[in-house]
Design goal:
Elements lengths: L11 H12 L10 H22 L5 H22 L26 H16 L5 H19 L4 H22 L71 H14 L3 H9 L9 H16 L4 H29 L4 H8 L19 H17 L5 E3 L10 E3 L2 H14 L5 H19 L6
Antiparallel strand pairs: 1-2
Helix pairs in contact: 1-2, 1-5, 2-4, 2-5, 2-10, 3-4, 3-6, 3-9, 3-10, 4-5, 4-6, 8-13, 9-10, 9-12, 10-12, 10-14, 12-13, 12-14, 13-14
Length: about 450
């Protein structure tokens, strides 16, 4: 069964209350098993956090990816608490020490998982507005009641204590990664003019965007990827205004593509745009794809927690690797170069984001996600992406995850956002990031 999509033009509180009402629907029979409870907890919280990403101003793609990473780890460690035969990510992720465990019988899976997410989500979304705060509180109350229905009070208390301890441990770890505090919406207070003509310059007249977004994000502590940024990229084609140069050819490719868009290409550009505050962002788009496939597979709660942890970790590391490269190479955007060297009237259909060009963040995220999901579900798994149906964009179907990733990458060419090299090398960078995630051992 497909997950219910967000209704168009709804406000956060209305949609979250609808989700909470669904989460409060009684189970068939008197008492549900722990897998059903755990699935309800994962589904309820992930539905809500995808809405919170849309409505929290500081949740740009890197910040959203970080949250998905820590929430995924939280969900998985709650799984390990209930199923000690599975393997913790402690010792496998950078700086994550062994988690506290209660003595005695493993606690109920659903109760501990819900308690862990209920403790972690409000901290990771602490700067959302009053409506989001109310939505989180209501979700926590209603899911807690649902999880406890028909269970022994002492066992519920122990399970909730365990979930809280897991969340506290992971949140303390998260506070030391370099990305916990986001001020000024993530924009630097000031930024020097570039010393070279190839350097990034603002592409917006908005005052805040005269400095780039999150210039230090590439220095954050990664999850599974080594801290020395193992997924480094070669330099982009050398900057040149020579019409016979490779760089000029890259710019002409963008200009030609945007000047002759077919209706299908324009749809692709808009489908994958995933602008902050108007969508769940590119990381949330891939979390949504993972959830669609998990629902298609009718996956159990353990598989859901494992998959969402892996995709979240990969997304978070992809943003760190990508942002490291963006500010290492500090390359200007196509719109800047094309207006100066080729066509002063160049106006692509999408707004260029306020940070350097190389590589494409969409590509790095998509390459990582496609490689991780392929490792989980296998190749040649067809699916239909309904992420934006409630936003008025029709669903798109793909034969496998890499077809979707490549379309997400090329969408940035159609939108006039990136040069071709940024797209192709971003996909490969994502594949590299995924290699570290796929090496994690969760089942024994």
């Amino acid at each position: 069964m497909r997950m219910t999509r967000r209704r168009a033009a709804t406000v956060l509180v209305a949609s979250s209350l609808a989700l909470q009402a669904k989460a409060h629907t009684p189970f068939p029979g008197a008492v549900a098993d722990d897998d059903v409870r755990a699935r309800a907890a994962i589904d309820g919280w992930y539905r809500l956090i995808l809405e919170l990403v849309r409505h929290t101003p500081t949740y740009s793609p890197p910040v959203a990816a970080r949250a998905f990473g820590y929430l995924g780890v939280t969900a998985w460690e709650a799984t390990v608490a209930a199923f000690p035969t599975h393997r913790s990510l402690a010792g496998q992720l950078d700086g994550l020490a062994p988690l506290p465990m209660l003595k005695g019988a493993p606690p109920d899976f659903g109760v501990v998982l819900n308690a862990a997410l209920a403790a972690a989500v409000p901290v990771l979304f602490a700067n959302t507005g009053p409506t989001g705060q109310r939505a989180m509180a209501t979700m926590a109350d209603r899911l807690a009641a649902r999880m406890a229905a028909g269970l022994d009070d002492a066992m519920v208390t122990a399970a909730r204590r365990q979930g809280q301890a897991i969340a506290d441990h992971i949140l303390a770890w998260s506070a030391t990664d370099g990305g916990a505090e986001v001020s000024n919406m993530g924009f630097a207070a000031s930024w020097p003019a570039p010393e070279e003509p190839s350097g990034w310059v603002p592409t917006s007249s908005v005052r805040q965007q005269q400095a780039p977004l999150l210039p230090g994000w590439g220095q954050n502590r990664p999850f599974a990827m080594p801290a020395d940024n193992a997924c480094l990229l070669p330099a982009p084609p050398a900057y040149s205004t020579d019409q016979d140069s490779a760089f000029y050819a890259e710019a002409m490719a963008v200009h030609a593509a945007t000047a002759n868009l077919t209706p299908e290409q324009e749809m692709i550009a808009r489908f994958w745009s995933d602008d902050p505050m108007l969508s769940p962002t590119p990381p949330g788009h891939w979390i949504t794809i993972a959830r669609i496939v998990l629902d298609d597979q009718d996956a159990d709660a353990v598989t859901r927690a494992d998959t969402l942890a892996r995709v979240g970790i990969g997304l978070a590391d992809a943003m760190i690797a990508c942002w490291h490269a963006k500010f290492e190479f500090d390359l200007l955007r196509p719109v800047t170069y094309i207006r100066a060297q080729i066509d002063p009237a160049f106006t692509p259909i999408l707004i260029t984001p306020p940070f350097p060009e190389y590589p494409s963040g969409h590509s790095t995220l998509s390459g990582a996600s496609a490689e991780i999901l392929t490792a989980v579900f296998g190749s040649n798994l067809a699916f239909t992406d309904t992420t934006h149906e409630d936003d008025g964009l029709p669903a798109r179907s793909f034969t496998d995850f890499w077809e979707a990733a490549e379309e997400a990458g090329i969408s940035r060419l159609y939108g006039g956002i990136h040069f071709p090299a940024a797209i192709h090398r971003g996909l490969e960078q994502g594949r590299c990031v995924a290699g570290w995630t796929n090496a994690l051992v969760t089942r024994t």
